[in-house]
Amino acid sequence: MENTNDNKSKNWTSSKSASEVDENEVTIVKNVFIEFLNTRGHKTTSERLAILEEIYNLDSHFDVVELHHQLRLKNYKVSMATIYNNIRLYEDAGLITSHRFGKGMAQYERCYFRGSHDHIIFIESGKVVEFKDDRINKIKKCVEETFGITVERHSLYFYARPCPESKSLNSVDTFLDNFSSSLNNE
């Protein structure tokens, strides 16, 4: 995942890197999941907890194949079927969220300690950049007031490519710097 923290802008966020994941957070997430399983009559297994811990140690969006690979590297003997079956439980427990970025396979990310954010997907490279812009929350509030509803969650994806006529947008990093600056100027 692209690190989109920018000292010039408070509008950008990114998830913590794997080295920054607090063991206390992993413990909290595991406890939330155990409670979720208990209230629904499911068993708590070491496989379920190991998969969840690996998810919370990943620092980017992932798909099931990537997760399976990471678990195999750590000598966990977990089948793809087990991962698929548990992904749904993690989603239902509010611990991960799924995305369709146009790569065919669903991408997932941890979400328990994260606020709402949106995504820019670069069409040619497939690079995914997360961002947060408070103006989107204003739109959400307007929608709620207009329609008399409560928005539980939303998703906003921008599928983009750098403009060929703009030499300043030839790289994703330059794009991010320019986009961040434009947000600060509004």
The assigned structural class equals alpha+beta
SSE order, as H and E?
HHHHEEEEHEH
- Average predicted local confidence, pLDDT: 77
Please indicate the percent range of residues in DSSP E strands (runs of 2 or more).
5-15%
Strand order across the biggest sheet? 4-3-5
Say how many strands there are.
5
Total of helices: 6
Largest sheet: 3 strands, mixed
- Rg over C-alpha atoms, rounded to the nearest angstrom: 18 Å
Structure described in brief:
By secondary structure, the protein is α+β, with helices and mostly antiparallel strands. It has helices at 23-39, 46-57, 64-73, 80-92, 134-147, 172-185, and strands at residues 96-99, 107-110, 118-122, 128-131, 157-160.
Properties at a glance:
disordered N terminus, two-stranded antiparallel ribbon, 6 helices, globular, three-stranded mixed sheet
